[in-house]
Q: What sequence folds into this?
């Protein structure tokens, strides 16, 4: 009996020591080491890739923002502020989440497929099929709005890129394609009293190439572009 108690106590003590050592190593030392390396060598990324203007954090280069006018009485959905470049639609956050305006509470895709509700490549006119054509209706409505908003000063928008009418998988993509930025140039120039060449130069200067030259597609960070736009407007 004494040997049994002694062996049990010895095993429990060995287990407790193992637990304490592993807790110290994996729960304290390892996190501290990783945090130290991150802060020392990747400080900006480790702290959320925050963007500052005049010493104030205005957002993250990793998270999209909405550029809308204040809600008016009776409005449920704000109108876009057309002085600024607009990002991708936020339908990716959908009705299954409380995050509908880049508010970072949740993110997620619509789970709508590319042929959602389309019949022979077009949205169905039958109201009975409307619920099954949600994505189709979103895209058609978004395209009409993009064409209307950006057809200014005799400049007519005809080809609309996919990212102008569809949200990203997370709904939080901070980037748009150079093509989508390009079709907004005339409208942004007109709204801000700038020349088309000035605004186009901003887009060109903020267009990032493929990662390592071959991964992904060229892209434009909307927040960084709009910050540069605001600075240009202030100087003009």
A:
């Amino acid at each position: 009996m004494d040997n049994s108690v002694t062996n049990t106590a010895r095993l429990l003590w060995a287990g407790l020591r193992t637990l304490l050592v592993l807790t110290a190593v994996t729960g304290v030392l390892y996190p501290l080491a990783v945090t130290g390396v991150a802060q020392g060598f990747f400080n900006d990324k480790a702290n959320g890739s925050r963007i500052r203007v005049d010493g104030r954090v205005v957002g993250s280069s990793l998270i999209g923002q909405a550029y809308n006018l204040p809600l008016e009485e009776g409005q449920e959905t704000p109108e876009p502020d057309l002085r600024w470049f607009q990002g991708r639609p936020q339908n990716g956050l959908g009705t299954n989440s409380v995050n509908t305006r880049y508010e970072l509470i949740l993110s997620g895709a619509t789970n709508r497929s590319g042929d959602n509700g389309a019949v022979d490549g077009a949205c169905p006119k039958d109201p009975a099929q409307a619920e099954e054509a949600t994505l189709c209706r979103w895209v058609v409505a978004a395209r009409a709005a993009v064409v209307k908003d950006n057809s200014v000063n005799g400049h007519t928008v005809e080809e609309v890129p996919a990212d102008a009418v569809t949200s990203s998988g997370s709904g939080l993509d901070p980037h748009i394609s150079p093509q989508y930025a390009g079709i907004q140039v005339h409208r942004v120039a007109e709204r801000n009293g700038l020349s088309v060449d000035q605004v186009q130069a901003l887009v060109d200067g903020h267009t990032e190439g493929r990662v390592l030259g071959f991964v992904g597609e060229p892209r434009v960070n909307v927040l960084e572009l709009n910050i540069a736009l605001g600075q240009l407007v202030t100087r003009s």
The chain has six helices and five strands. Residues 48-235 form one domain. The helical segments are 2-41, 43-46, 134-150, 178-192, 196-205, 222-235.
